[in-house]
Amino acid sequence: MTAIWYLLVLAPFIAIPVLWWSYRRKVAARESVADARWQKLVSAARADPAAAATAVAALETRAAYLRRARTLDPVQTVLYYLLKNSLPDHEVMPQVGLACVLEVPAEISGSAREQRLNGLARHTVDFVICNKALQPVAVIDLPLQEAAAPTPEQDFKSRSLAGADIRYLRLSRKALPKRDALRALVLGG
């Protein structure tokens, strides 16, 4: 019986080195495979630069994009939650393209229509406030830098949204409105 107790006490002292050795062996195998792949790529680059370029392009396409850490920056996140709490009877949509909010009238066709669609596709807004039927009511932008006069992009957005009877607001990142004032500011009442 005491022999079993000695084995139980010694088991961690035997198992830990065995597990550590197994782990190090697997890491070394992975590193040798990665090193062989790298050596193959380097030798291919020396032998045939065109083939090396295609190999590098194949590697780049695998990791061409990465997931962003955050969809909204901290100021946008605060405003999003303020809007959600201040307007519970409305839907708040962040980072929306202007082409999703506005459409070109059917009377306009041809190259003029394409030009207007391209103009809408180039612009995004920070928040779109919709009623429960998902009809846009207001649009909010948080410019990165405060400007004394509106930029051409902001002017385009303002004119386009005013023509569609959608309220357009530019809020300062440094001084967001209070929760109570936000509802009146967004809905205009």
Keywords:
189 residues; 7 helices; Trna Endonuclease, Chain: A, domain 1; alpha+beta; four-stranded mixed sheet
Summarize the structure.
This protein is of the alpha+beta class.
Please tell me about this protein's structure.
The protein has two domains: 2-62; 74-187, Trna Endonuclease, Chain: A, domain 1. It starts with a helix and ends with a helix. Strands 1-2-3-4 form a four-stranded mixed beta sheet, with helices on both faces. By secondary structure, the protein is α+β, with helices and mostly antiparallel strands. 58% of the residues lie in helices and 13% in strands.
Instruction: List the secondary-structure elements in sequence, H or E.
Output: HHHEHHEEHEH
Helix and strand content put the structural class at: alpha+beta
Unreliable spans: none
Return the CATH topology of the largest domain. Trna Endonuclease, Chain: A, domain 1
Mean pLDDT: 85
Question: If helices are DSSP runs of H or I spanning 4 or more residues, what is the number of helices?
Answer: 7
Terminal Cα separation, in Å? 85 Å
Q: Shape, please?
A: flat
Strand content: 5-15%
Tell me the domain tally. 2
Strand order of the largest sheet: 1-2-3-4
Radius of gyration: 30 Å
Number of β-strand runs: 4
Summarize the main sheet. Answer: 4 strands, mixed
Instruction: Write down the CATH class of the largest domain.
Output: Alpha Beta
Helix content: 55-70%
CATH architecture of the largest domain: 3-Layer(aba) Sandwich
